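Here's a chain:
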Amino acid sequence: MTDAARFFADSLNPLLIICLAGTGFASRARFPIFKYWAACVLGIGAAVILAESGKYFVVWPGHPSFPSGHESFAISASVGLAAADRRWLWAVIPICLLMAWSLVSAGYHHPIDVAGAAIIAPWPPLAVFRFLCRRSSTSL
């Protein structure tokens, strides 16, 4: 079971990167390619930096955990895919759940680390895409 968990923990984020790249080129994307990719990079980058900063700051005393960077990337990339086309939600929700399971099962993180990522990761890309929608008069 641990080998499968490690495989999924290591391979799901590259899969999401491929999906993000393909969605940027899709003719049905809701945003121009440059704006879409810029929003994805800014939103995902902010979410991952926020999660990774937990390594350097004590979230609460006596608990050495920090939000998962892998799960933060998966969730924020999922927000980027859903911003382009809401039908992505049917694919990315199971991927994020599988990522959470694999990180805990492989022993990389505790459940609280994955929960922390689920709390903080969606907001930076949502804010960036909300700003992008307001500027381009597209609804999110």
Q: What stands out?
A: Residues 64 and 82 are 33 Å apart (CA to CA). The chain has six helices and no strands. The chain has a mean pLDDT of 85.
